[in-house]
Design a protein that fits this description.
heterodimer, A: Rossmann fold, 3-stranded antiparallel sheet, 12 strands, about 35% helix, globular, B: about 240 residues, mainly alpha
Chain lengths: ~280, ~240
């Protein structure tokens, strides 16, 4: 089994008597994309900010690339890249100046021009950050986080506010990071994004990790197949473990009645279905 | 790169950004000189007035280039998330803030020098009693006091939109009671006491001694001690209440 890039054991964090994180444990393996999901206020940002070294934990053990992030060691920060939710750098610096400036802080940075190309900003390399669109600014954030050639990258909602084409482009960048052997901890609100990118996901709710595993595995554990069709203008849904038998019966009945099953589809529950089922239940 | 090399790099980066920001360049660079030209041209026929005005404007320049500029800058950098971003990189804080502060210090030194040179070259201010060592001491202690108070001030400012109101509420009354534009020898007692409690008057008094009267440091120990006290308070507040985000 590969060594863990991130290891979290019984992590707890309280703010003035309120426990925002109530005992979370998980591992992120080297070379893996791990998606951390959960509603606002569930504790995922607190968890990630503890791993990034921005906050101190109240209790538990945390290891990031073998170091304790609370020690705020420069060596650890040379090996990680952070894309925060807020974006932007000096608005009067150009994209190229910003990336070159940050590159100097790292011992073995990537080539700045190649990093700008990697995130698809080459055409804007000479533009000032203050003149970029929201999506372009997010790509600058990504370039600034990648220019140090980190082993581990924290991506906090990297595609919020992107149009669909820009999101697909950003996903390609994240997949390239995986191809380069990087480890990625991804926080996102978009479940299709988590499903498409993550090797494994963890779902956080009320300060606890309530599910963990590969997206397809989570879906399989929960429900089975959904068969739906339209009848008299209404959508009829059936859930079943054995769609073969169900389809045979439904189509047989329809044929006997001389009807057609409009919009017939067989689908696996998505991560979104699992997520909604898990997170909209009452407190456990 | 070493922390020192990164500090130098940050300093050069800040210089480039400073000149690209028209409002910062205006308030830090042009405004004190405009005040000097206008007031000296209108009222500066008498030597007495120039002897008040040149150290007064030099003191004001120390305050705008450090207190005003840093209060604005740090508030902006925090609000934009730039401080938080820098904190997540291997840039040592001493290099980052060193570069940021060096930018302000250079502005202060250049402004004080310009005001003194223009006062001499254009308006005929005598340099007969100029005491360079005393000038350096009062400029530097003024920079430390106002620089640290500017950073401390940024902690009290809730957001960048509010920054001009907070900064000017401190800056404007202080320049009017501290003898920047005119002699405050006939100031009402309460205002005079307020001016003596605040730092700007002591910077101006020290600069006047260094530029005009030639009375040595020994005769201005009180002003120096007051500024050291403000520096200690400013540094303590700047460090104690510092917020990255």
């Amino acid at each position: 089994m590969p060594e863990a890039a991130i290891s979290v054991r019984d992590l707890r964090k309280s703010y003035g008597g309120v426990e925002a994180v109530r005992g979370i444990s998980f591992d992120v393996l080297r070379g893996e994309i791990f998606g951390l999901l959960g509603p606002n206020g569930a504790g995922k940002t607190t968890t990630v900010e503890i791993l990034e070294g921005y906050r101190r934990r109240s209790a538990g053990q945390v290891s990031v690339l073998g170091s304790d992030p609370a020690a705020r060691d420069l060596d650890l920060r040379r090996r990680i890249g952070i894309v925060l939710q807020s974006s932007g750098f000096y608005p009067r610096a150009t994209v190229r100046e910003s990336v070159e400036h940050m590159a100097a802080a790292y011992p073995a940075p990537r080539d700045p021009a190649e990093t700008i190309d990697l995130v698809g900003l080459s055409e804007k390399a000479g533009a000032r950050a203050g003149k970029l669109s929201g999506g372009q600014l997010r790509r600058l954030d990504l370039a600034l986080a990648l220019v140090g050639d980190p082993e581990l990258i924290f991506l906090d909602e990297p595609t919020t506010g992107f149009d669909p084409a820009a999101r697909r482009a950003a996903w390609e960048v994240v997949r390239k990071l995986k191809d380069l052997g990087k480890t990625v901890l991804l926080t996102t609100h978009y479940l299709d994004e988590a499903q498409s990118l993550s090797d494994r996901v963890g779902i956080v709710k009320d300060g606890l990790l309530i599910a963990e595993g590969p997206p397809s595995q989570l879906s399989r554990d929960r429900a089975s197949y959904r068969v739906s069709f339209r009848q008299n203008g209404r959508v009829i849904d059936h859930e079943t473990d054995d769609p073969t038998e169900l389809l045979h019966r439904l189509t047989g009945e329809a044929l006997a009645r001389g009807e057609r099953l409009e919009d017939l589809s067989v689908s696996r529950p998505t991560l979104e279905d699992v997520y909604l089922e898990l997170t909209t239940r009452g407190p456990e | 790169m070493t922390a020192g090399a990164l500090l130098w790099r940050q300093f050069r980066f800040e210089r480039r950004m400073f000149w690209r920001n028209p409002s910062a360049a205006f308030f830090n660079f042009a405004l004190p000189l405009i005040f000097l030209f206008l007031i000296a041209s209108v009222f500066g026929h008498k030597t007495n007035d120039l002897n008040t005005l040149v150290p007064g404007i030099a003191g004001m320049a120390v305050m705008t280039t450090t207190f005003t500029s840093l209060a604005f800058n740090i508030t902006f950098l925090r609000e934009q998330g730039i401080l938080k971003r820098v904190r997540g990189t291997p840039m040592p804080p001493v290099s980052y803030f060193g570069g940021l502060l060096a930018n302000s210090v250079l502005n202060a030194v250049v402004q004080v020098a310009l005001v003194i040179v223009i006062g001499h070259a254009v308006y005929g201010l005598s340099w007969a009693h100029l005491d360079v060592a005393e000038l350096v001491v009062f400029t530097l202690v003024g920079v430390v006091a106002f620089g640290s108070l500017g950073i401390a001030m940024s902690h009290a400012i809730p957001n960048f939109d509010a920054a001009p109101a907070y900064v000017n509420a401190v800056f404007l009354p202080m320049i009017f009671i501290s003898g920047t534009f005119y002699s405050t020898s006939s100031l009402p007692g309460v205002l005079d006491a307020a001016a003596r409690a605040l730092p700007l008057k002591h910077v101006i008094d020290g600069l006047r001694a260094a530029i005009v009267t030639g009375s040595g440091l020994g005769s201005h120990v009180g002003a120096l001690l007051a500024l050291v006290a403000w520096s200690v308070a400013g540094i303590a507040l700047a460090v104690r209440y510092f917020r990255w985000e």
